[in-house]
TrEMBL record:
Residues 657-678 are annotated as: Disordered. Residues 101-229, 326-446 form the Multidrug resistance protein MdtA-like barrel-sandwich hybrid domain. The keyword Cell division does not apply. This is HlyD family efflux transporter periplasmic adaptor subunit. It comes from Candidatus Monoglobus merdigallinarum. Residues 132-194 form a coiled coil.
Length: 678
């Protein structure tokens, strides 16, 4: 099936000799780049490579001459409509999403391994079990040390308690007396508070809108006495067009116009609603809250419109009192006096009513007597405690120190065992991620040789393993380096595949996150698709003086045929046009002119016989074709200006191009500083 596809491609090229020549040039260019890289790494092959280069060059020259011969023998080149994609291309390698090197944190013989290279593993799967018998013996010793320390601590506590028993009674009596005083003091304070609350005071300033009680009424705690309204400041919420509301902010000055008489009042914006609502006529609005000082003629329920700067509202709003509160009683009793009436003005802290309560007065007297009794009992308890404590204080200090030391020894023994148990987890190494095992360097019977390494540590929930994670690899050499023998195993996370293109400083400005990337490989005929994931600003200067920037590409439709380390060609589509007039790039002369078949209109026209020079405006181009914006019509027959080149010139040109591709920071894996990214 693959052979049939290749044959169809050949026939397709044969129908377009010009395209065949260009495709051959691209293949030769890639071939030279890889040959030069091989020559640089293996000098013994230099002579062989030079012979191969000469043979390929002669073959290429013959192919190009054959193509030109076709062209000069009547091959028609016409302006035609086609799709063109402008790309930045380069060779690179497939990379896994991430790479993890598994290393041991402890030494010991590996008792078991549960996987082989190529296996797929899930996160937290057990990979290795290391012999922990020596550590388990240490844990048993730690248990014995804990038991001894616990016995010493219990003995110290028991001796200390026996000594304190004689003084405990006095100390307990003192504490009880202190608690009794605190309780009596609290009861007395509560009674005084209740007595003070018999004079009911307002917690607000404003006007009395409603009075709920009369003199002689019996009330309970929580009874509403009066409603207070502060109408010195009013708020109004007015709808504004949603787009206009974006330009209104808290603190902006506003002009509010009363609907009832047209009076204008100054106000200040205090809030702009973040919620957008729908109005009539499919309009969207947001409410703006404006606060105004009441001049005396505005009441709650009045309506008004507003202007904020030069922005007008979309509809009217309704005034509301800024503060409406209710004063309640905190005591029970009979209303003896009222100092306010409906409509009167009150201020914060002003007395508004007096309540009579025999119960509260009785509670004050009783609480005071209880407090006096408690203070006398406390004095007696202190005298008794001081007398007992003075005779045993020195001995108590020694016993307390012994208890503290025993407790610290016990705690230290427990911590030592916890550290050993934590270390025991390191003897079971689990997979830090789900992925594919690409390297296995250790097996059952080997020594884990746990030691410090450059790998970062990874601790799973049921075990511990050191794992180094690398991403952003730019060449196949970095992939092979990851499989170092210093790691017990290496796992690739292939939930996603990526690649990195090194784009030169001229082209990188055209690369944007999200752009489409086409990916091809010699391994399979399938064309894969990717997207630009990141464009780094950390450039690397090459030996040719050109700085390149790594562009990370996410391959979104990879399959099992595409594996990390494979060589691929990636092309970033930076622009594309569809169904546009286009000509082969070889037909375009310097100065954006072409030779069109027809009679000349200017005697100084240097076009070949039978052709005339026409100026054109060009657009997007690719390897083979360039867009013609103006100057030509579909079907115009053109003359190709491809010039002859000697074999020596062809050899030198190909070698220079290949060397330029190799000299970039990414080597053949990068864009190689190719003009236009091609």
């Amino acid at each position: 099936m693959g052979r049939h596809k290749n044959i169809s491609k050949v026939f397709k090229r044969l129908k377009d000799p010009k395209g065949l020549i260009i495709a051959a040039g691209r293949r030769i260019k890639t071939f030279f780049a890889r040959l030069l890289k091989l020559a640089g790494e293996h000098k013994v092959w230099t002579a062989v490579i030079c012979i191969a280069v000469l043979l390929v060059t002669i073959t290429a020259v013959n192919a190009i001459r054959a193509g030109r011969s076709l062209e000069n023998s009547g091959l028609e080149i016409r302006a035609e409509r086609r799709d063109i994609e402008e790309k930045i291309s380069g060779d690179t390698v497939v990379e896994p999403n991430n790479e993890y090197s598994i290393t041991a944190a402890v030494s010991g013989t590996i008792l078991s391994d549960t996987f082989e290279e190529g296996d797929k593993v899930s996160k937290d799967d057990v990979l290795y079990v290391i012999d922990s018998s020596e550590l388990e013996n240490n844990i048993q010793s730690a248990d014995i040390a804990i038991a001894k320390a616990k016995k010493a601590y219990d003995d110290a506590v028991l001796e200390n308690n026996n000594t304190y028993r004689d003084t405990g009674s006095a100390s307990s009596s003192l504490r009880s007396a202190e608690l009794a005083v605190e309780k009596a003091q609290q009861s007395y304070s509560d009674a005084l508070k209740a007595q003070s609350d018999l004079n009911i005071k307002s917690n607000y300033s404003g006007s009395v809108s409603e009075l709920h009680v009369s003199v002689g009424d019996n009330i309970t705690a929580g009874t509403a006495i009066a409603d207070i309204v502060d109408n010195t400041s009013l708020e109004i919420k007015i709808p504004f067009n949603a787009a206009d509301a974006d330009n209104i902010h808290a603190g902006d000055a506003a002009k509010v116009t009363l609907t009832k008489n047209g009076s204008v009042i100054d106000g200040v914006v205090t809030a702009v609603s973040a919620y957008t609502e729908s109005g009539g006529g499919f309009t969207l609005y947001r409410k703006v809250t404006i606060e105004v000082r009441n001049p005396g003629a505005v009441s709650s329920g009045d309506t008004a419109s507003a202007m904020v700067g030069n922005i007008a509202c979309g509809d009217t709003g309704t005034f509301e009192n800024k503060t409406e509160s209710t004063i309640t009683s905190t005591v029970s009793g009979e209303i003896q006096s009222l100092y306010i009436s409906e409509g009167s003005t009150v201020s914060d802290g002003q007395a508004i009513a007096a309540v009579k309560s025999d119960t509260v007065e009785s509670q004050v007297v009783s609480a005071k007597l209880s407090l006096d009794d408690a203070n006398e009992a406390l004095t007696r308890a202190r005298i008794q405690n001081d007398s007992t404590a003075s005779s045993t204080s020195l001995n108590n200090n020694k016993l307390s120190s012994a208890v503290d030391n025993a407790k610290m020894s016990y705690d230290d023994a427990v911590l030592s065992k916890e550290r050993l148990l934590k270390q025991l987890e390191d003897y079971t190494i689990k997979a830090p991620i789900s992925g594919t095992v690409v390297t296995k360097n250790k097996k059952a019977g080997d020594d884990a040789l746990g030691s410090a390494s450059s790998a970062s540590s990874y601790a799973s929930s049921g075990g511990s393993a050191a794992a180094s994670a690398s991403s952003g690899m730019t060449s196949s050499s970095s992939l092979s380096a990851s499989s170092s023998s210093s790691a017990m195993a290496v796992i690739y996370d292939m939930s996603r595949l990526k690649c990195t293109l090194n784009v030169d400083e001229i082209d990188v400005k055209d690369v944007k996150v999200g752009q489409k990337v086409t990916i091809t490989t010699d391994v399979t005929d399938k064309e894969y698709t990717g997207v630009v994931e990141t464009v780094s600003v950390n450039g690397t200067a090459g030996s040719n003086g050109v700085t390149t920037y790594p562009v990370k590409v996410d391959i979104i439709d990879f399959d099992d045929a595409l594996l990390p380390g494979m060589n691929i060609e990636a092309s970033i589509v930076i622009s594309s046009v569809h169904d546009v007039l286009a000509i082969p790039t070889s037909s375009l002369n310097r100065g954006d002119t072409v030779y069109v078949k027809g009679e000349k209109t200017d005697e100084s026209d240097a076009a070949p016989e039978g052709y005339r020079t026409v100026s054109v405006v060009t657009g997007v181009s690719d390897d083979e074709y360039i867009q013609i914006i103006s100057g030509l019509n579909e079907g115009d027959e053109l003359y190709s200006s491809v010039q002859e080149m000697t074999p020596a010139e062809m050899m030198m040109n190909m070698q220079n191009n290949a060397a330029g591709a190799q000299s970039g920071p990414g080597g053949p894996g990068g864009s190689g500083g190719m003009g236009g990214g091609m």
